[in-house]
Amino acid sequence: MIDNMLFLAKAEDASQAMDWQNIDLALLGEKLQDYFDGMVEEQSMRLEMALHGELRADPQLLQRALANLIANALRYGDQNSTIRVFNQDHSLTVENHGPALSEEQQARIFDRFWRADSSRHQGSSGLGLSIVRSIMRLHQGSCEMHSEQGVNRFTLRFPY
Q1: Rounded Cα–Cα distance for residues 94 and 68 (Å)
Q2: Are the C-beta atoms of 36 and 72 separated by less than 8 Å?
Q3: Structurally, what CATH architecture does the domain formed by 1-9+39-93+117-146 represent?
Q4: Is residue 121 pLDDT above 50, yes or no?
Q5: Over the stretch 7-37, which tens digit does the pLDDT of each residue have?
Q6: What are the structural domain ranges in the chain?
Q7: Closest alpha carbon to 138 in 5, 2, 51, 17
Q8: Which of 5, 7, 32, 10 is CA-nearest to residue 125?
Q9: Burial class (CB in 10 A: 0-12, 13-18, 19+), 1
Q10: How many helices and strands (H and E) does the chain possess?
């Protein structure tokens, strides 16, 4: 939790040095797939990577943002469901099946320490999605969440 708080404090500094690179999204997807394979199996879930093309971003920050979204989908998604990670134009999306969130919950989902269901936090600090938002701000992009009919979709939008 201390590491997450330090990261958030550093991310608020606009002078944060960014390591801009062209990232091969398919390779990033393979790396994330390998990392999460065991956890996905433990949760009786599937992880489907459909990333292609390139994106200009800071590779470590982008990997952290996607990893946080995938970990969140594993924590709150339905067992025996599939987590899908895909890209389109200048956006990346992580989608999972799970309990729908109200509009009020969706509006607060990226707030620090906030959890939609504190009884199900399973050791979560409530900082993961706040970190995602900070990473997207550093990229001059945005993040959004939509929840409807049992599908929760987190989208990272890049401005270029």
Answers
A1: 10
A2: no
A3: 2-Layer Sandwich (3.30)
A4: no
A5: 555 556 655 678 999 999 999 999 999 999 9
A6: 1-9+39-93+117-146
A7: 17
A8: 5
A9: exposed
A10: 5, 7
Which tokens in the block code for residue 90? 């200048």
User: CA 132, CA 92: separation in Å to the nearest integer?
Assistant: 12
Token pair of 71, please?
A: 């970990």
- Tokens for 20, please give them: 């801009």
pLDDT digits (tens, 9 = 90+) for 58-73: 999 999 999 999 999 9
Q: Report the Cα 150 to chain-centroid distance in Å.
A: 18
- Measuring CA to CA, which residue among 129, 122, 156, 143 is closest to residue 28? 156
Residue 86: both structure tokens together = 């895909």
Burial 24-57 (b: 16+ CB within 10 A, else e): ebeebbeebbeebeeebeebebebebebeeebeb
